[in-house]
């Protein structure tokens, strides 16, 4: 089997190898890169300024060590099947890239295998599209076994889709008598079969991971604490806020996709209530479809959460469009049946990075919003109080009369609920307690 990938195949750090799977290989040499944004009037582009979108693409490329030496925003009059860009645009950009000695050109759009191969021929450098770039980032950042499995699965799904009409060096090997496939077709089918087999194995392993996570959730329900999940656009400051609230040391950098693996920590609220805070992967516009499916498990904590904190970078010029991207992914989970349609009722918008606007008092607030600065700590007390209030809203207030001798059940109520009032009679303790519905059901079970 040939081990040399054809033109247009593989991503920056993950070429198409023999067998199935890729390994990121960071290089010590400087890789000079160009970032090209094809810009048209599609609806998804309408709400997003070209400058902000280009800056995001530059940030994505820089986050894996590429040195950006050339950028351009190219208006599209039409999407050409051969190169996506116009003939003159492709030629002009080729001259600029050769002058800057560009090694890699990042196209912030989705390219077909043919478009990718043709641009590489015109420009004389490696070309990757938005999907390939994001896959590379995920490949470098995933640390847990679950994350590694999901990244490999996403890479394979992406690679399998590019085995069609792109392996031209193999197609030229076609032989036989017209009705028998030559070695080229055999090579393609063998690669497709190997990738398919590996995808099946990965999905089985990921299913086991999901079952294990389900067991962990069941264990948490036996000693139940409310779950508060952080979601938001990448680089909105989720990990910095997570650390500020919990005192944890989750890696937090001014970098897109600094967090890929979900992290959970305990947090005690002002009422004394204990909760579990969950940090999740950042969202991004036009997330590759391969990753939407492969990373569904990382968002399972969101579907189980009692409160969802939507963290927004309120100082970002594209903050409104980023909000739309995040809510769009969550609504997609509703359509998939992995998230209930009532999630907005238990969500809080956290307007982060208020320090960049002059402090929380300078941030205009709408209902269901809290302004904070994870860096300075301003507004964190108000956020904790709002989380407390929101959790209490979803709890039942019930009254029980317990015998004075039933100290075990009384202790259980103190451990799992919030005592509102207590009146100790001679033989009976009258107690009013706030409980989560599932805890109330457990307490009132006849066999308890």
Provide key terms for this protein.
disordered N terminus; 15 helices; four-stranded parallel β-sheet; six-stranded mixed β-sheet; single chain; 448 residues; alpha/beta; Rossmann fold
What would you note in describing this structure?
With about 450 residues, this protein is of the alpha/beta class. Among the domains are: about 225-390, P-loop containing nucleotide triphosphate hydrolases (Rossmann fold); about 395-445. It has 15 helices and 13 strands. The chain has helices at about 45, 50-60, 85-100, 115-125, 130-140, 145-160, 170, 185-220, 240-245, 290-295, 300-305, 320-335, 380-395, 405-415, 435-445; strands spanning about 30-40, 65-75, 105, 125-130, 225-230, 265-270, 275-280, 305-315, 345-350, 370, 395-405, 420-425, 430-435. It has a six-stranded mixed sheet with strand order 6-7-5-8-9-10, sandwiched between helices. The protein has a four-stranded parallel sheet with strand order 2-1-3-4, sandwiched between helices. α5 (about 130-140) packs antiparallel against α6 and α6 packs antiparallel against α8. The model is unreliable at about 1-10, about 15-25 and about 165-180 (pLDDT under 50).
